[in-house]
Amino acid sequence: MMNKLGLLIDDDPIFNWVSTKLIEKVDPDLTIKSCADGREALDFLCENYTGETFYHILLDINMPRMNGWEFIEALGGIQTIKGDNISIHIVSSSTDETDIKKADGLKFVRGYVKKPLSIKDVESIFG
Predict the structure, then answer these.
(1) For residue 65, what are the β-bridge partners?
(2) Are 42 and 74 in contact (CB under 8 A)?
(3) What are 112-125's pLDDT values in tens digits?
(4) pLDDT tens digits along 65-80
(5) What is the CA radius of gyration of the chain?
(6) What fold characterizes domain 3-126?
(7) At what angle do helices 38-48 and 68-76 cross, to 10 degrees?
(8) Whether the Cβ atoms of residue 105 and residue 76 lie closer than 8 Å to each other
(9) Long-range contacts: 97-105, Cβ < 8 Å, 24+?
(10) Pairing mode, strands 3-9 and 53-59
């Protein structure tokens, strides 16, 4: 059986804390890691990525240093990372239709969820 990791990428520590609690309710065995921006998450994946793990990523768009779009682009450029074990859900307070459309065609992106996360959102992603 494949290991699973929940990776929260958001510069809001309260969002990360609340999301962690919701995810633990849905999947108590899931390992959860939080990163404050895309750069930190990319570094984490470069150092820890394995084909034996499935990565559920909740990604904010608007963050300092490296935003969500830049993270997705950079992730796609890493040769050692294959897309079949990465699932990104963009979680944003943005209701901008262009963001939602942009997310649609991107590699790794499986969905777009509006903040705040509900238990139903978490069940559909991690359940």
Answers:
(1) none
(2) yes
(3) 999 999 999 999 99
(4) 999 999 999 999 998 8
(5) 13
(6) Rossmann fold (3.40.50)
(7) 30
(8) no
(9) 99/61, 102/69
(10) parallel
Average pLDDT for residues 71-90, to the nearest whole number?
92
What one-character-per-residue DSSP string does 97-125 give? HHHHHHHHTSTTEEEEEESSP-HHHHHHH
Q: Which of 14, 35, 16, 23 is nearest to 122 (CA)?
A: 23
Tokens of 4: 């699973």
**Residue 105, both tokens:** 């065609």
Give the closest residue to 60 by CA, choosing from 82, 36, 40. Answer: 36
CB neighbour list of residue 109: distance below 8 Å, 6 or more residues apart: 72, 88, 89, 90, 103
CA-to-CA distance for 81 and 112, rounded, in angstroms? 22
Q: pLDDT per residue over 13-54, tens digit each?
A: 999 999 999 999 999 999 999 999 999 999 999 999 999 999
Encoded tokens for 83: 């897309």
| Cβ neighbours of 92 (radius 10 Å) | 19
Note the pLDDT of residue 74.
Answer: 96
